Request: fold
Amino acid sequence: MMEIFKIKKIAAKEEYERTPVPDSELKGSRGFLGMYAGEHAAGTEFVIGPLFVAHGVAAGDLLLGLLIGNLLAVLSWGLITAPIAVKKRLTLYYQLERIAGKKVVRWYNLVNALMFCFLAGSMIAVSATAVGIPFDLEMPTLSDWFPRTPGWIVTVVLMGGVITLVAIQGYDKVSKFANVMSPWMILIFFAAGIVGLSQLGVGSGEGLFAIAQEVIWNGVPLPGMTRFSIWHVIFFAWFCNMAMHIGMSDLTILRYAKSWTSGFAVFAGLYLGHFVAWIASGILYAVFLQANSGSQEFAPGPIAYQTLGIAGAICVVVAGWTTANPTIYRAGLALQGIFPKVPTWKITAIVGGITSIAACFPALVMKLLDFVALYGLLLMPMGAVIFADFYLSKRMGFRSEAALNSGSDFSLPALLSWVLTLAFCLGLNLIYGVEIFFLGLPGWFVAVAIFIALSKMKYPVSKPLVS
Amino acid sequence: MKNILKLISILGLVMSILPPLLLFFGEMDLESMKLWMGIGMVAWMCTAPFWVNSKTSEN
Reply:
């Protein structure tokens, strides 16, 4: 039994955590195509597509919104994140440490870890909706914030326990399992769309558009849900991965790219996962709503099972699990940055516990769109700080990588850029009623402006730097 | 041996996407489609782990 808990010693592999990636380790765009395709066809897709239906998005708004929003996201990766990644070839954490100092990075890690816990929690809940099918578990509804039954709590906690135990074993096996599952999962999303359309009575191109407009995305939100416009779709598709592109998390991945153009490789993942998969899962939900008229139940497992059988239910479990597991692992790593002396397995176990408790609350699933937007928003200002430091320090006359160059472990401009930007966004939300999906764009400019202004005061360059 | 496993894996993927297409064109009923998709899933899951990651490692 103890063997289960034994931490496997992974062969020492250079991860270049505090040094630039050497040329010998660089990879071409093809590797990034596959990785991003797998990463963006995940458990969240089973929730986001149906939530668009529930929010009464119109068919034309959805298609156009996803095309534009995903394009903007691809451009953000390709034009903002990737050029910095290949120039510096450093992880996000180390790059941030050089600019903001260790103390600020600790706070960043804490927020990051908490967000990862909640995201993983929502994915455990998604998986639980499929695991609960054979046990006739009462499923959560759209308006649920708290668990409905003790059975839900038991299922979620057991799943959380298993997933945490696997995460304790390390990332490698889960990553390999996700690699294996990825092509099959993508096909299941395609299958879901095809079968869903068939069940809705689509037999031709004309029929497709009519049913899409009248039955699936008819522009009428479900009771208790706000209506989404094309702007919601555009901004959500653009900013649902805000932490990764303009938030700069993917510096860590793209630092291995031979060329900055590899940043555009994300298009495969986005248009498979955030276009095909969102549309397919939305169709599945429309089939479910047609068969269960007036139902408020919102459970990806039964929705997929009803249309695709056991393959659909297993796909929901696998998608949720393969998203939750690396997320728990990443949360553990983020926390270990704060508590470096605590063993990894203990940190991962604590993270798993927090995640399992969070997963008990269906609100994380029902409010996933808001949560994903919040997650990106909270981390985005530090990405703006990295952007401003990289592109604008020379032009605007302040010292780049100020913490490193001044020998400090704390940069006030970086911390204030983060805090004041979030306060500004909160103000826009509370005073002017701007929805969370639209706060990222003004927030990014505000973060850049604050960082430049404060850096010019605190770390001015009186004479030109020698290059 | 690996080639046989790859062949079964590919058949598994075909069985995951072909039945939905046949259903769409009215050549298969829903229950048969679910069954074939389930078989395709098992075929993929039981064979793909033996070659998918080894290919990744070689790369």
Observations:
- Chain A touches chain B at residues 31, 176-177, 179-181, 183-184, 187-188, 190-191, 194-195, 197-199, 308-312, 314 (CB under 8 Å).
- Residues 27-378 of chain A form a domain with the Hydantoin permease fold (CATH 1.10.4160.10).
